[in-house]
């Protein structure tokens, strides 16, 4: 079995050959092996865990795609008004950014502790330890409005910030692999499940298996929050979208109209950026096309232009920041992911470049340039089958464009 296949079996993650090989090299160095065959032949469960730690992508930040938190506050408020507490899960939680954002949003809305509970899981033990520590640096603070940092964090002498204990202790963290959750023991355990930015790393069969697990964990009248690019996968596997704009919220498809039909109230949460204002959309009915992205307000086009010009001048970090700022407003901006791919390629971070271009074509399957870059990268990694498929996809798009231009 290849290293990639071993990693997929252990974690569900589909990783590139170069990423898998690099992880093996790093572990061989660390454990004093110089023969990769011998190393792989004697892989213990503990060593496999260490390898997986090297391929996870624990990218997250506080108040990432914030409408999901506001939609959840609305749901918790509604249940609490009927005396019912809400059980929330964050899977995967990376370094705790997502569940802590949820706690802050609930606190901002003056909801008492008894109104909710939050469990957070991640495959990576290192992530869980970071989450439990509740200490964050600059990368975690990318939200538009940073007032929450003043309210809930203490600055440390090294430039980082520590979350207040009163909030930190409101999340229960556990290491866990979603694909191995005991869904009998946890059946319908949660009213709200966040599962954002995980399925994008899975292949189709693994995505289906993960969604089956999530469906089993979620109460029948519960709400699931996905990453933007993952909504279609949920819709293909038993979920329907809920009418919260830019929250990427779904429910199990029971053949009925969505139960939550009220507009989320204006919340006293950190002031929301205009482009993200919570707006009500008509309930999705069976006659409407499913999984159509909510209409997006006009994006601040110059952010991407600025990112390009910064990247051209070699200011890669600033360029990446601009892209993330753009994505905070327009999460489905394939072009921002494409640019992040280029920026990471310039920084020689090929795995991240690969990851961003994949996101780009997930969102915009006919993105010719991203397909070409991915094909070249696959070729460089010795993955000729993938390279050929990507190239022929790109070629078809090119021909279509040429034909279109000729008319
Ligand atoms: C990109 S982060 C997403 C974090 C957060 N949900 C967000 O959207 O910001 C992906 C996380 O998935 C975790 N992960 C990967 N495979 C997993 C699995 N099979 N079960 C649970 N967590 C997993 C990784 O360790 C990583 O921290």
What does this structure look like?
This protein has 407 residues and is α/β, with parallel strands linked by helices. The chain folds into 3 domains: 3-54, no CATH class; 67-276, 3-Layer(aba) Sandwich (Rossmann fold); 301-406, Tetratricopeptide repeat domain (Serine Threonine Protein Phosphatase 5, Tetratricopeptide repeat, Alpha Horseshoe), CATH 1.25.40. The chain contains 17 helices and 10 strands. It has helices spanning 3-11, 17-31, 36-41, 45-55, 67-80, 97-108, 125-133, 147-152, 165-168, 204-217, 231-235, 301-312, 316-329, 334-346, 350-363, 368-380, 384-406, and strands at 86-90, 116-122, 135-136, 153-155, 161-163, 171-175, 190-195, 218-226, 239-241, 249-252. The strands form 2 sheets. A 7-stranded mixed beta sheet has the order 6-2-1-7-8-10-9. A 3-stranded antiparallel beta sheet has the order 3-5-4. α13 (316-329) runs antiparallel to α14. The longest helix is centred in the C-terminal third of the chain and has 23 residues, at 384-406. It is globular and about 60 Å long. Residues 259-298 have low confidence and may be disordered. S-adenosylmethionine binds next to α6.
């Amino acid at each position: 079995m290849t290293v990639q296949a071993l990693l997929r079996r252990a974690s569900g993650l589909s990783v590139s050959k170069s990423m898998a090989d690099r992880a093996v090299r790093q572990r061989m160095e660390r454990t004093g092996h110089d023969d990769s065959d011998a190393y792989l032949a004697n892989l213990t469960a503990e060593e496999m865990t260490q390898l997986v730690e090297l391929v996870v992508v624990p990218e997250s930040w506080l108040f990432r795609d914030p409408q999901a938190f506001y939609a959840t506050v609305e749901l918790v408020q509604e249940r609490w008004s009927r005396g019912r507490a809400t059980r929330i899960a964050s899977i995967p939680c990376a370094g705790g950014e997502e569940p802590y954002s949820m706690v802050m949003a609930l606190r901002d809305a003056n909801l008492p502790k008894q109104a909710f509970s939050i469990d957070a899981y991640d495959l990576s033990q290192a992530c869980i330890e970071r989450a439990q520590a509740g200490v964050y640096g600059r990368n975690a603070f990318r939200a538009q409005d940073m007032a929450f940092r003043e309210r809930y964090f203490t600055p440390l002498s090294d430039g980082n910030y520590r979350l207040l204990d009163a909030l930190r202790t409101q999340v229960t963290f556990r290491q866990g692999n979603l694909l191995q959750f005991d869904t009998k023991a946890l059946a319908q355990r949660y009213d709200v499940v966040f599962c954002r930015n995980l399925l994008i790393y899975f292949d189709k069969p693994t995505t289906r298996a993960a969604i089956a697990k999530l469906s089993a964990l979620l109460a029948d009248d519960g709400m699931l929050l996905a990453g933007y690019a993952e909504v279609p996968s949920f819709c293909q596997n038993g979920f329907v979208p809920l009418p919260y704009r830019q929250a990427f919220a779904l429910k199990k498809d029971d053949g009925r109209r969505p139960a939550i039909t009220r507009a989320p109230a204006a919340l006293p949460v950190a002031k929301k950026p205009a482009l993200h204002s919570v707006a009500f959309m008509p309930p999705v009915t069976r006659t409407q096309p499913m999984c159509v992205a909510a209409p997006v307000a006009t994006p601040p086009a110059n952010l991407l232009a600025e990112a390009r010009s910064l990247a051209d001048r070699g200011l890669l970090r600033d360029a990446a920041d601009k892209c993330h700022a753009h994505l905070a407003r327009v999460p489905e901006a394939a072009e921002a992911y494409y640019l992040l791919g280029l920026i990471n390629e310039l920084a020689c971070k090929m795995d991240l470049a690969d990851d961003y271009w994949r996101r780009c074509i997930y969102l915009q399957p006919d993105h010719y340039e991203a397909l070409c870059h991915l094909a070249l990268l696959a070729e460089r990694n010795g993955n000729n089958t993938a390279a050929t498929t990507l190239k022929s996809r790109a070629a078809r798009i090119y021909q279509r464009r040429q034909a279109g231009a000729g008319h």
